[in-house]
Structure formats: C-alpha cells, structure tokens
Amino acid sequence: MTALIALHQATVQLGVGARSLTRLNPSLVCALSEVSMSVNAGERVALVGANGSGKSTLLRLLHGLLQPTQGRLSQARGLRQAMLFQRPHMLRMQVKNYVALGLWLQGSAWAQAHIQALATLERVGLIDLANRKARTLSGGQQQRVAMARAWALEPQLLLLDEPTASLDPHAKGEVESLMQAFAGQRSENTLIFSSHNLGQVKRLASRVLYLEKGRVLVDLPVNQFFDSNVLQAQYPAAHFFVKGEVL
Ligand SMILES: Nc1ncnc2c1ncn2[C@@H]1O[C@H](COP(=O)(O)OP(=O)(O)OP(=O)(O)O)[C@@H](O)[C@H]1O
Ligand SMILES: [Mg+2]
Q1: What are the phi and psi torsion angles at 81 (to 5°)?
Q2: Which of 91, 138, 141, 241 has the highest CB neighbour count under 10 A?
C-alpha cells in the first residue's frame, strides 16, 4: 500500500535565522531529529510525548507549514488535508461565513461556499449556531466550529493539535464525537492528532507514536502501546511517560 503521507529522515531546526537554513546549525534547537514515518489511508494516529517533545512541530511539518531543514516530506498526489490548531483563531464574523470562508479560499464561489457551509453545520449538529458571531462562542463551541470548517473542505487527512486541551468534559466528548464521525465517514479518512489525554488516545487512535526530544521513539498499534508488558520491556522511557500521565 502506498503511504498517504510520509517523512523521510526529516530534521527541523527552529530559532532565529532557522527559516533560511538548508543545513544543520549546531547552535539551534532541533525540534525534530531524523524522523521517518509513514501513514496509510484510514489510520488514526496519536502523537504523545512531554511538552516540547516535538508534536506540534511534526504536525506543522506534515501540513507544509514548516520546511524540513534536512530530509523530506512526501504526499500522495492530490491529497486533501486540513489542520486544526489548539486554539482556533475565530474571525469577527458569523459562524456560517467563517465556515464558508475556508471553502471560498479554496476556490469555491461564495454562494456555493455558503450552501456547503450550512450543509456542514447541519451535518455536525451546529446549525443552531450558524448566525452567531464566531467570537462570542464558548471554547468548546469554537473548537467544534473550527472542526466543521476543516471538515467542510472534505479533507482525506485531518491533522489536529491537542483538539480538546482546555475543554470541559462535555465539550471534550463532543469534539471527540466529531473526530470519530470524521474517521467513520469514509474508510480512507485519516486522522493524525496530538494529545496529552491518554484516555482519548485509547478511545480514538489505532496507532500511537511517542516522541521524546524531537525523536519518534515508539511507533506501535494502540493495544500494544497500552500493554505495559510490551512497553516496559521494550521502551522503558515511554512506559515511564505513560505511568506519569496516568498518575
Ligand atoms: N518558534 C520556535 N523557535 C524556537 N524553538 C521553538 C519554536 N517553536 C518550538 N520550538 C522548540 O521546539 C521544540 C518542540 O516544540 P513543539 O511545540 O513541537 O513541542 P510539543 O510536543 O508540541 O509541546 P507541547 O506539548 O508543549 O505542545 C521545543 O524545544 C520548543 O521549545
Ligand atoms: Mg504542541
């Protein structure tokens, strides 16, 4: 099976002057070091690891928002992807226009974008918010609207950076339901998300990548990642991390 998206020995350096780097500079931070991974259609991949381990950098790299300093990214031809940031940036406009704007930016005519935006809001159960000002929504509502906006673009790959951090349990559940609905909509729909919530990882992921200091140290199917016998024996650092998060 050909991969939907893959990284080949990708290294990302960040810091002052890093944007123009074409080779490594030992005085800068390596946010990612020699990461190779590939994701197939239909996978649900969770990225876990401590603060600063490189999860957001990896997502940004996969979405083309960063260039690798070394190594490369490859994507299936014509891959449609969308990304959801931890704190969605709501614009000063009605929810329906906020969703439509994403479609318009992608090339749809405004009238068509508007119709599609309303259809998506209906599908994700947010039609009642369509005329509200996006900025006046609660955090949980904003995250669901951002999810609707991404989904309206009909991506095959959805990247989400800590989609439920700082949400209350009810809002968390609603965002998780949308993630599940997206994953279940078509068999080729693919999720890559970062999370500090290991319960959520268990509920949503089919595969887990554990990052430490910019490296992917563990890449396992979800049931093996949460099998403490496997983890403790083969990946003690990840086992330590999982135990720490659970406490
Ligand atoms: N703009 C930047 N300039 C310099 N260093 C950066 C920049 N952004 C991130 N870094 C560094 O890159 C490393 C990886 O950061 P990243 O944000 O990817 O981690 P993370 O796993 O998403 O952490 P968190 O769980 O806190 O969100 C960290 O050492 C961080 O300090
Ligand atoms: Mg992050």
Answers
A1: -140, 155
A2: 241
Do the beta carbons of residue 179 and residue 204 sit within 8 Å?
A: yes
**Which residue, chain included where needed, has tokens 């614009």?**
91
Rg (C-alpha) for the chain, rounded Å, is 19
C-beta of 51 in contact with ligand 1 (< 6 A): yes
Please list the ranges in the chain whose pLDDT falls under 70. Answer: 1, 16-21, 246-247
pTM: 0.93
Cα(219) to centroid of ligand 1, in Å?
20
Give the atom of ligand 1 at the shortest distance from the alpha carbon of 54: 18
Best of 53, 58, 198 for a ligand 1 pocket test (most atoms within 8 Å of beta carbon): 53
Question: Is the distance from CB of 126 to CB of 144 less than 8 angstroms?
Answer: yes
**Measured between alpha carbons, how far is 130 from 55 in angstroms, rounded to an integer?**
32
For ligand 1, atom 6, the nearest C-alpha belongs to 14
